[in-house]
Amino acid sequence: MTxxxxxxxxxxxxxxLKPLFAQPTGAASRTPEEQRTIDLYKRVxxxxxxxxxxxxxxxxxxxxDDIKPQEGTGSGTIVDAQARLVVTNLHVIEDAxxxxxxxxxxxxxGQGSKxxxxxxxxxxxxxxxxxxxAIPDVVAVPFGDSSKLEVGQRVYAIGNPFGLYRSLxxxxxxxxxxxxxxxxxxALRDLIQTDAAINPGNSGGPLLDSDGRxxxxxxxxxxxxxxxxxxxxxxxxxxxxxxLPELLQTGKVRRxxxxxxxxxxxxxxxxxxxxxxxxxxxxxxVPVERPIQGNAFVRGYREDVDxxxxxxxxxxxxxxxxxxxxxxxxxxxxxxxxxxxxRKGGVYGREREVQIVPRWE
Length: 361
Fold this sequence. Notes:
Elements: H1 2-21, H2 32-44, E1 48-58, E2 67-80, E3 85-89, H3 90-99, E4 102-106, E5 112-121, E6 126-131, E7 154-159, E8 167-181, E9 187-194, E10 206-208, E11 214-221, E12 232-236, H4 237-250, E13 256-257, E14 260-265, E15 268-274, H5 279-282, E16 289-292, E17 300-303, E18 309-314, E19 317-318, H6 322-330, E20 338-344, E21 351-356, E22 359-360
Antiparallel strand pairs: 1-2, 1-4, 2-3, 3-6, 4-5, 5-6, 7-8, 7-10, 8-9, 9-12, 10-11, 11-12, 13-22, 14-15, 16-17, 18-19, 18-20, 20-21
């Protein structure tokens, strides 16, 4: 009887323990959102390339002028498979271009190629490269519409942070139309802010919507440590699409130049200086600082705030800062005369209206 009871206990134990040691028969269950993210990555990751740069810098600790190679990495996004065009950030390749170095691209397939520069725009930190070799199976990412983005919308970033190929992170759109200054003092405008993790090496990679469409190019982070702090920025794809044809045709982007220097005051943007022969000078704009005509050895400037022009409206729209003035000018058409409403010495001064065509350079 005892032996029979032992056999029954062992049999029951086997029945209970069998599921614990059973081998998995299929894939783990996934939520619809997880599966959608997996499918997105499978579709788009081949459009992301690894960019390796080599530049040459002077060694500051060498006794003689000793030039040493310096390597860098970043990401790029294939936007035209047939033309083999890659969009990246200018700062990813800038040192290599300046020092006569090299830029190489590696695709998801592991195939590599040298890259040639098609064009670049410092004011948007965007550069367009061409894959030099005719590599097959180049895959481009489809374009989205960054004007339809909303704060709170889910977005995804793919890139090569710290050299880790084609890493995927996700987050939301934290804000829109942000402005930040680069280390060179260039103001990048209309940026998308996201909390998707963006780290060094992500620059130039795509920011995607939930359908895997390109809505931005990841360009910068705001961090004291140099690593992701949940504040990343991307250049909107609509901004890139506006300048892309000109970059492909001429290699650069012409922008409107007024030939003035504006300064923000407590009453609004005021004209501090104008360049002789510039659009502002020819349009009769009166600055705060005006040259004193003296002899060949004594020349200077005098300040006259009360007689200077404050920019009150641009094309009928009230402006309250230098940035708002520059944004309004930037959005104007090239053949368009821009209408400025000026007030002498401040918002309560005498008002006049002038029309000026900026110089596109």
